[in-house]
Structures are given as structure tokens and as C-alpha cells.
Amino acid sequence: MSDKTVITAKDLSKRFGDFTAVNTISFDVRQGEIFGFLGANGAGKTTAIKMLCGLSKPTSGEASIAGFDIYKQTEEIKKHIGYMSQHFSLYQDLTIRENIRFYAGIYGLKARQIKERSIELISDLGLDDYTDRFVKELPLGWKQKLAFSIAVIHNPSIVFLDEPTSGVDPITRRQFWGLIYEAAAKGITIFVTTHYLEEAEYCDRVSIMVDGLMHDLDSPKALMEKYNKPTMNDVFLQIAIRNSRKEK
Amino acid sequence: MKVFLAFVKKEFYHIFRDKRTLLVLFGMPFAQLILFGYAITTEVSNASIAVYNQSPGQFSEQLIDKLVSSDFFTVSNRIASQSEILETFRQNKAKLVIIIPPDFENKFSRNEAEIQLIADGSDPNLATILGSSANRIIQSWMNELLKSKGANLSMNTIIPEVRWHYNPELKSVAMFVPGVVTIILMLVSAMLTSISITREKELGTIEILYVSPLKPVLIIIGKVVPFAMLSILNAIFILVMAYVIFNVPVNGSIALLLMESMLFILTALSLGVFISTVAASQQTALMLSLFALMLPTILLSGFIFPISNMPWPLQIISNIIPAKWFLIIIKTIMLKGLGIVYIWKETLILLGMTLGLIALSIRKFKIRLQ
Lengths: 248, 370
Hints:
heterodimer, A: Rossmann fold, 6-stranded mixed sheet, 4-stranded antiparallel sheet, 10 strands, 26% strand, B: mainly alpha, abc type-2 transporter like fold, 2 domains, 4-stranded mixed sheet, 14 helices, 4 strands
């Protein structure tokens, strides 16, 4: 991990009418870091990610991604990030090879690069015998791994993962995190949201969001010490219960 | 450009791998044309009529012969009493009864003869057609008869001779071909586009596209281009089929017709894009396309029901139906064989609608991204 900062957010907020989905969050993420974004459903994680990716305009606050401003330079940002959503994001009626080519194609990779990278990606995932299979025929775990590999096929400086492992069995989840570590080792920054709390312990640092506010941000070890709890699960529960909105 | 081509290629994969899309694309034009061409016809041939001849004689039988020999009618039964008339209708033996009164033969020589036609009004369209067809045949028979007698017709009778310009044989398929082209273009372009965009919304793949460096406008154009290409192919396919199977030619300029079709396709595509900005799911998109587009297109465009016969509120509403204007255009080119001079107004209206819809969709699209 280098000392270079790739994501900076300062007092970032998003309001929908009276409802404040994200409330003045501030943080920095360094290059190659695995940054966990924890929170219950509806805590504002997805809204925050959408703002950082340029899908949604913040109501107030500032942020820069890979050195580009999220208000003015969304086009530049898009070239430097990868994204994988909680919804399944490959085309089911396209084959593995066609999906890879399509996504590499829309990121403007050259024909030679597409060829090299798809060969590399397919052999890394051990999918050599299945390249002409339709994605809909693959087991969910394979699909998720493939989706992640495709999300980083253009070597982005940051990849945003929005609950990438929801609905995946524990073994595949573990393998999926293997892919994440590999990508981080290559210098790709990982920004991941999750509500699986054991995954939080795989992150370099985690932030805990409750109802739009960011309540704490540190390494899992420091957080467990600070709250004097044995697991991230207990840390999260303590923070979440103490701070959640009254009306719930 | 290469990025764009990669996108369009993917769209073609979607289209050619989805059986339902293929069915709508290629099965429907064929089925509709055959259906409208053969089954739903407003022409009359061999309609059953009943005859109540109370004055058997030379002239009355000659009249009946004339009616039958026209191929329009066949005499299904002869009636002997007044009460049988209703019974004939009840049992659906005939749609039209011709009543020749007792004094027909006598009065005929004095040029005062009358006959009565009673049509089954439970099917008003058919009744009107049968009535006027019978009328026409009787007129022309009298004409011939009087001529052969050497009578001076112009003295006391005006016998109008009606001819149909542009479609002299009154082939109903000539009417339906423009209508089917209109409906198919509207349906394929608008419905399939809106479904294809909302499908990506449902799958969540659209978010990946938004996050990618692809410009939103390019995503929309990429979605629309394959359907535009297939739609124009479809239009050509229908026109060729109409010519080969039903012998309906394009009287005017084919190039102009294709250009106007392209414009209408653009209108329909922008409608489809607009629907997809409003609808969140494929189901909604399908429903919206069917009820908000198809029904008005079929009912209010003048395809089946003449607009001039509608009550004025509907006449006003019909003005916002793009298909109405395209139908005028395509009929003018196909049947009348006229050029742009006669349809520039309709073309401008369509163009205006299209630009308006595109502007609206782009605005909607941007709001969504906020």
C-alpha cells in the first residue's frame, strides 16, 4: 500500500427532499487499500457509492476520485474506475467470451489488449473449457468471480464493489476475497460495501455507517480494541443500536 | 466508434437470441398481413341473399339473375310470405332480403316500379355494403334495359356512375397494407426498444453502462440503431410481400416512401425511449406500449375507422397520434403515387413530434441521473 491518496471525501451529503441519505461523510482512501464500507440495509452505502462513481450528484460536500473532481470531471473518473453492483451485472444471454469482449470493448481497450487480457482472465479463473457457455448456465459463485474480473479488466485505479458477495456461499466468498487481495496487490484500490461482518475483518480499514452518518473509521483490529469486543459483528451491533434513528 | 460498434454487436446478440423478440420482429408482420389481407376483408363476394318475389315474371326474374350473375350475391332461399323475412334473419340464412312487390311487373312498364331491400342491421358495416352493392347492380341493370329500349335517359333520371380513383377495384388489402406497415413499425420500434432498455434496468446491467465511459446518449443510440435497421427491413419485407402476394404496388417513389418510413421509425423509437424512461420494469414497458400506443394507433389513426366520422373530441385527440400522419403519408405515396409536395405538412408534423420526444427523453434521462 502506498501513501498516495486516491479517494478524498469531505462533508459529502445527499438529500432526497426531507430525507438525508448520506450525511456529511469525510474520509480518505490510499492507493491499494481495501476499504470496507459497513452498514445495515438503508444506511446510505449505495447512495454514497453512486456519488463517488458519478452516477448521482451530491447535494453538498466535495470529493475527488483518482485526482478528479466528482462534480466536473465525471467523464475522467469513469475511465479510471471499475464497478460491480449488488445486482448481478453480466449479460446472461451472452457467452463468457462475449461478455469479456463487450466490457473490454466499452472501456476502449484495443483488440490486441482484449485478446491478451481475456486469455489471462479465463486461465486465472480456470474457465478455459467454458468460454463459449452462456453466463446463465454458470453457478452463481463463478458468475460473481467472473463479474469481478471483468470489472477490473481495464486496470482501473479504483474498483467499487457494492455488496458483491450477497447470496454467495461461504467458500465462494472466501475465493472471491482471494481475487480482491490479488487485485489490491497489483495496486488497485478496493472500495467495498458489505453487510457480512466477517468480511469486514478482511479489510485494511472499515467505516461504519448508520442512517447516513459515518460513525467510526479505523482498522478492524483498532475498532475491536476500542469497543472492547471480540468480533466486528459485536462492534457493529454496538454502534448500530446506539445510534439508529428513533423512529425505527 | 469502435466502442459503439461493440455495443451494437451486443444488442444484436440479445435480439437474435430471444425467441419472443424474433417472433415479434418477423412473425408478426407476416401474420398481420395475411390476417388483414385474407380474413378481414370488407369486400363482398357471394353474400347470401333471400328473395321474396311476389310478382313472378319476366322482369323480376331478370333482375334476380342480374344480381346473382354479379358474383356479389347468391340466392340462398326464396321466401313465400312476409313472416318468413324475420325468420330468415333469425336463422342467419341471409344478410339481405329483396322484396319485389305484387304490382312490380305492371308498374315496371310504366317506369314506376319499386322494390324494397331489407338488410340485417346487426352487422352495420356489412349491411351498408350489401345495400349499396345491390343498389348499384339494380341501377346498372335498369340502365341497360332502358338503353336497349331506346329510351332517352337524360330526360328524367340522373344515373350517377361512381368510379373509385386510386383503388379502382376497391381492394381492401390495398387499404390494409399501409395500415399494417404503420402498426408494425410502431410496434416493433417502440415496444421492442422500451423493453430492451427496461430489461437492462431490471438486470442492473444499465448501472454498469452508466459507470462506464460510454456516454448516455451513445447508450440510447446503440439501443435504437439495431431496431431502426430491423424496422426498415421489416417495412421493405411487408411491401415486397404485399406486391407479391396481394399485387398491391407502390405507385409513388419508393425512395421517398423509405425516407418517410425512416422518419416514422425515428418517431416510434423516441416514443420507445421515452416509455423506458418512465417504466421501471419490462412488464410496465410492455403494458404502456400496448395500451398507450397500440390501441390508439389502431383505433384513432384512421386505419380502421375513418377519422372524419369520429365525434369531434376524438378527432382532436387523433391529431397527437403519430400514426395518423404517417398513414396519410404512406397512403398518398403508395396508393395515389404523389410526391413530397402533397405531404410536406404531415412530414413536418412528424418531424416536430420526433424532435419533441427526443428532447423530452433526454431531459427525463438527465433527471434520472441527478
